[in-house]
Amino acid sequence: MTGADGTERSSPIIEAVGVSKSFGAVRALSEASFGAGAGEVHGLVGENGAGKSTLIKILSGVLRPDSGEIRVEGQRVELSSPQAAQALGIRTVFQELTLLPWMTVAENLLIRREPKGFGPLLRRREMSSRAEEMLASLGIENIDPLELVANLPLDQRQIVEIVRTVTREPKILFLDEPTSSLAMREVEWLFGLLNQMRGEGRCIVFTSHRWREVESVADRITIFRDGRHVETHAEIDEDHAVTLMTGRKVETMYPELPPADDEEVALEVRNLGGGSLSDISFSLHKGEILGVGGLEGQGQRDLFLALFGAGEKSEGDILIDGKPARIRNPNDAIRAKLGIALVPEDRKSEGLLLPMSVRDNLTLPVMKLFSAGGVIRSRREMRLVQQMVERLQIRLRGSEQAVATLSGGNQQKVLVGRWLLADSRILLLYDVTRGVDVATKHDIYELMLALISEGRSILFYSSDTEEVAHLSHRVLVMREGRINAELKGSEIDAESIVTAALREEDVPA
Amino acid sequence: MSRPKLGQSVRRSRWSHFTAQNVPSLLALLILIATLVFYAVLFSTSLGRLPGNFELTSTTNNAMPLVFSAVGQTIVFLSRGIDLSVGGMMDISNSLAATRMGGSPGSMVLWSIIILLVGAAGGLINGLLVALGRLQPILVTLATLSIFQGVAIKVLPQPGGKVPTGYTDFLTNPGHPWALIFIGLLVLFWLAFRRTAFGVAIYAVGNDEESARANGIRVVRTRVGAYVVGGMFAAAAGLFLAATTTSGDATAGDSYTLTSIAAAFLGGTTIFGGRGSALGSIAGALVLSILISVLFFAGINQLYEDFYQGLFLVLAVALSALVGYFLRRKK
Amino acid sequence: MGKGFSRWEFLKGGGAALTGACALGLAGCGGGSSQGSGGGKKFRIALSNSYIGNQWRIEMVNEFKAALKMEPYKSQVEGSVYNSGNEVSKQSQQISNLISQRVDAILVDAASPTGLNGILEQAAAQNILVVSFDNTVTTTKALQVNTDQFKFGEKLASWLAGKLGGKGNVIMVTGVPGTYVDKQRNKGADSVWKKNPGIKVVNRFPGQWDSSVAQRNTASVLPSLPKIDGIWAQGGTDGVLKAFLAANRPLPPTAGEAENGFRKFMIGYQGHKVEGFSIGQPPFLSVVALELARQILRGDRPKKNVTIPFPSVTNKTVKKGVTVFPGVQDSFFDAFTDSGPNATVKMCLDAAKSGKPCGSSLKVSLPKA
Q: Which one of A112, A327, B185, C285 is most buried, by most CB atoms within 10 A?
């Protein structure tokens, strides 16, 4: 912990007092209070649905509270619109990015403050140099201002969003889950930036699901649960925090991994290449969780896509149950004979039909199971859906609820449930816990264990190396599209994964 | 200050970015050049001479209404809308010009301005219904298409009327390809428009309405504005139609609804908004006009003309997607 | 997910289509539309037709093609036909290409009465003879060949009035509302009714010049109508009669258009025989325009508009195999040929059906200039 003790801090620059907000019957905030001071980095933590995002939206003028008061520098204010909040020096990086995909980085950074030229005309040529300066002044040299945002990877988009907000010189800066798509180096960069802003006397409030991040940068931490303020501390350990967040004691973060002793090979990959991948060989056994580690962006994503038939054209062989398999598209992969399923991290764009119901999303690829002659037998469908909802502990009001209204973790469970209904035997879990709260993460871990106990196999990638280390029987460490090392049993821990990821020379797997 | 930095990467040149980001427009330009060459070859093999002043003039004049309506359609497309009422607005404009315009320069200028304002008013109706009424653009403009057609019939129940000769000579001079100047002006207009705050706002809204709003862009005003400008371009297209035909017909503009959409597509503008350029659409409009002559001199059975035009459109759009795909792969 | 791959698949398909299209294109290039054979300087006359989507237009174009294979056109005229999709801009572009070809005359059935004025004036300025027919154009630089639509309505009405002895209940089945032709035909009929106060028009509804529409509309009004003594129909006449049959109404004397189906009723159809008078807009207007252009180009005739009479038959003059064809579909248009001693032109069925010549020469009698 850095910074002074919270209790002696001067009066808060921004404050919410007894704020309540309901959406229909759902009470998102009840009598919640919160305060943060100038020159402070304030961590805001809690499970999904604890009301953090709602609070930030209210303090940014996006939502209006049903009751309660908001004070800025001790003065009561009405934040009737984002513009009103911005006028008071409040700027926010929301979870949903507000970048314009088919415009360049420079256009996005400078929108509404473009350099003016003759008459109503804007000076487009000057824009790129201005943007270049903005990025450079924040130490970013790997983003080309003339690139289209749509062509940037998710982490760089997040950085552009942060840069755009920060360069508007906010007095009070809110960041809602800014690190969920950032790699380790980028998180360090962001925290360096936040430290600098603290030094400039600005107030920074941010949320994160990664405890160590919050702990490392926040001066004070506020914990929310069920729409209420629980406690604010300058010093708090993880176990205590988790207990406060969930309201119950989580025995241990990671469950005990049962040994994998089945020698039968479910999936074998020989010399897979193409795209960013080269010469990848490994086998995945029945009842095994095979972790994939390494620094972010070393070809892990391409590997998962290739196995699901959604990647670049590839060379090499894939064998399922010892027999060569041709996977040309996801349809091939899903087919019962192969039974490969992918659960991606970007649930919104890659798998779920957000406006449709939980039931539809669960049963879409497996309509055949309960339709006769093209007609859906809805009673059988409902029974299967009910079983799945109970088994996965999906928290919802009813199976007709739209998936869009579920929390991220529960959306993830719906996707897993879909592949269970399809009876997929090989699950490719790609960073499924990203942006998911602690309790739901725990559910997902338990689910993974249940799946392998049924003899299914899991290929598991996570941007949280700790997670890979704790939940894998073996770990493949990737570097530049190759397998740099394979770790087994007691060799596996987060440190050895990172060490192997950084090693230059190739180690035959 | 020892803050961590995010590493260096290879920068591509401005030109390389420009090319990659304007593939569809550049492709439309290439298709235009190819079509022109093809036309010239067919023409000279068929008639034993190269196309001359008459061919250049009549082709340009004939293309003008489509060029203008396609630019208007493009602006609406960019805001993630669609304007099916283009044909109806051209009918109104064409009918008004043929019935009201007098031979004096004063009357011609006055009525041109009035007609452009009528176009703006029509666009305003579309825009308000779409942006404020939150109705589907395709539904709104389909309805206003019928309404505008009805108004046009009211203005000019029987084809007829007369456009002053001076007006024809000015907009679409039958003796000289001076209408090319208007295409040049249109290109300049577009380059400037793209550099205005309004132009940027249209692209932003077309990219993502919510993000645009979060960036402080007035979404409703921008969308309405796009329809207003689109309506004015449709009205201008109707004026050119009146000038080339020298007379009025309250149904002559109808076919431009679909051809303006086709030209915009051919130019690489997508109906999903935020991507594309009027420059591509201008090229697309010229291609579609010249294509008629290409098929003529190729001796293609006219029964299959529509078939070939449709095929051409699909191939061009597919080609654009293909080139885009390979460029992305190369990266 | 999988977007990349499916797009690739799609484009591969596109490539195949491209190859196929080229093959098709070459096949398309093979058939030129020029006709006629060598020897001497021929007049180059092009027919620019706005639309080829209905029976009338097909017969019109076929008769033009047939005429080109007969004398005097066979040796004097090199003809060609161009259709456009009823779009002004397309037809206009086609005509400008015809100007580029420096043809001697352009015959036009126009997509718009005014939309082609600009380009046709340019054609005239380049000394190309422009003759518009059927859907004529308003510019004074083009000649017009047509019929008198007022007379169409008037003649039908006069025959009916005469047949009914000047009194009785009549229904009027009109055309496409709002069109010039519809208005003129109705006016012609009304001028006759005015002179015959005993005739009562008990209903007037549009038949859209379409047999099925006319049949439907007739069927829906019939039950509310008293006894009908006569039918006046601009078009869709066979449909009107079929509606009467379906309603078990007697078939009254009928003045109608030249559908083969209507004329079949006049010679006896399913045991029913109708007293009738049938006239129609002649598809051979294209041949008349061709003859006018030929004569003017030869210097045999002044540049003046031509109006020709309608070809007509009654149940007394109608003749199997000449003006009615029991083996041909009802929708066939029998006005493709004139009949009688003062006929403008006599055409055979093959000419109208498939563009085949009817013998070696063709005689077209234009009215006195």
A: C285
